[in-house]
Task: inverse folding
């Protein structure tokens, strides 16, 4: 007798191929492996195939394709080839704007489930009741409604984001089904074992609250990139790692949740052939030589040390931001994936280091708010066994090293043994102690300017300037104009016990 199963991916982040854009080597992940997995599972089972969002953004191929307005959308083409039945929308799927998202949905054979996001006042997706051999399964799609806190306003001007819990309750009432299965592009705000909060309860993640909603029988989640397949509140809860490294499976008969690694499945040549034209153009784009850099070693060999002692690569990004905005102060993070730069810089290097399509925003900030900004940054560190270490909250449940900024244009000292909120013990601008009522212009990416990463003190600051272009493009033009880039690197941040 065939089993009734749901196979689900989440946070694929544009990883279509099983080959690395960094070095061309074969990897253990990618949707071309997933195609093989789905084919094998279909032989012996009745399966529903779902993607849970954050699939458009994240790979060089998709960056190039979306910037070039490729038609048909390569991700949609691959999902159609795999035979994906339903999709949910994630926060990063808005990163390239309205037309990119709508074209993706238009090119898909799959139906969209997302019911708490409205486009021109109509839901972008709808709950589906799927009939298996012996029961009716309601598939409800939800997304974190925290997107307006991060996304560029022009990307979401025709969208509304409704409270996922309230919409879920309405959808449950309307559904005439034996089981309610929720697909939520968001994570868990509480410990899965005892229910205590694991983060500030901002509403970004409400997975635990969804499982606690009467009527819900199982939850597929995402956003945090965790590997989860267990019972929570006596209901199956699932989440998978990012970049198509694994997929989730729920047995609808036994309600057993499982995770399966992509590496156990062979690469499907059909998918690799299908995306080859996109890949070839992407490779040409990535191989453009932009210029050279000299004066420092810009390779990042130890990410922790690169944050503890501000790396020259960080100074480079801030220098680019300074030239683009003429701001008094510039701040940037070292992203989780950053590996630094070789002496010869290609577009590939920028894309691999700066993984997000962020734009630049300049805020007017008082000395008081600037200090609060730095206090939030200081929460990245703790003292452990007499040494400075990373606060575990920035590693679990999801690595968030991108939420530690390093600022140029000021000199400051963080004393990590002092209580949270009182760690900035020295703060100067041009050698003078900064007062609360001093005013500065501060450049940062749009994610941080919107308060992303619990920087709630920033959004209320007046916006002085917006440069609505990707940082990778801004950096590329800077390098091309200079040809030989030198960086004015200062050891302006002191972090002490």
Result:
């Amino acid at each position: 007798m065939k089993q009734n199963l749901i196979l689900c991916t989440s946070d694929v982040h544009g990883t279509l191929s099983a080959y690395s854009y960094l070095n061309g080597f074969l990897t253990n992940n990618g949707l071309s492996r997933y195609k093989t997995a789905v084919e094998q599972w279909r032989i012996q089972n009745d399966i529903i195939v779902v993607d849970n969002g954050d699939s458009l953004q994240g790979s060089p191929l998709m960056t190039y394709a979306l910037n070039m307005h490729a038609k048909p959308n390569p991700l949609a083409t691959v999902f159609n080839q795999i035979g994906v039945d339903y999709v949910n929308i994630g926060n990063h799927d808005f990163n390239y704007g309205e037309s990119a998202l709508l074209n993706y949905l238009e090119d898909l054979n799959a139906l969209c489930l997302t019911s708490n996001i409205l486009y021109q006042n109509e839901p972008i997706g709808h709950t589906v009741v799927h009939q298996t051999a012996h029961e009716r399964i309601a598939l409800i799609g939800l997304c974190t409604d925290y997107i307006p806190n991060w996304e560029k306003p022009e990307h979401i001007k025709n969208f509304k984001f409704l409270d996922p819990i309230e919409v879920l309750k309405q959808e449950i009432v309307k559904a005439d089904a034996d089981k309610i299965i929720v697909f939520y592009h968001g994570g868990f705000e509480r410990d899965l074992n005892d229910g205590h909060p694991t983060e500030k309860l901002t509403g970004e993640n409400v997975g635990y609250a969804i499982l606690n909603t009467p009527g819900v029988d199982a939850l597929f989640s995402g956003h945090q990139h965790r590997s989860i397949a267990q019972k929570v509140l006596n209901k199956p809860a699932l989440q998978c790692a990012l970049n198509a490294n694994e997929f989730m499976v729920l047995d609808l008969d036994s309600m057993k949740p499982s995770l399966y690694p992509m590496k156990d499945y062979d690469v499907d040549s059909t998918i690799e052939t299908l995306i080859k034209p996109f890949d070839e153009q992407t490779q040409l784009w990535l191989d453009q030589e932009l210029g050279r850099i000299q004066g420092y070693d810009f390779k990042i060999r130890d990410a922790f040390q690169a944050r503890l002692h501000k790396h020259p690569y960080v100074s480079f990004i801030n220098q680019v931001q300074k030239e683009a905005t003429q701001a008094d102060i510039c701040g940037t993070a070292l992203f989780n994936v950053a590996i630094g730069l070789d002496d010869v810089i290609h577009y590939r290097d920028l894309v691999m280091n700066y993984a997000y399509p962020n734009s630049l925003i300049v805020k007017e900030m008082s000395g008081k708010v600037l200090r609060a900004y730095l206090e939030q940054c200081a929460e990245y560190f703790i003292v452990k066994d007499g040494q400075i270490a990373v606060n575990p909250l920035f590693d679990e449940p999801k690595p968030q090293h991108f939420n530690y900024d390093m600022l140029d244009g000021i000199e400051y000292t963080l004393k990590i043994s002092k209580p949270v909120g009182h760690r900035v013990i020295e703060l100067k601008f041009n050698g003078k102690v900064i007062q609360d009522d001093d005013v500065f212009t501060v450049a940062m990416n749009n994610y941080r300017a919107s308060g992303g990463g619990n920087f709630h003190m920033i959004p209320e600051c007046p916006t002085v300037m917006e440069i609505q272009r990707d940082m990778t493009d801004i950096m590329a033009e800077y390098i091309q104009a200079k040809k030989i880039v030198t960086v004015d690197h200062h050891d302006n941040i002191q972090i002490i016990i």
Q: What stands out?
A: The first strand starts at residue 3 and ends at 9. Residues 85 and 426 are 57 Å apart (CA to CA). The radius of gyration is 23 Å.
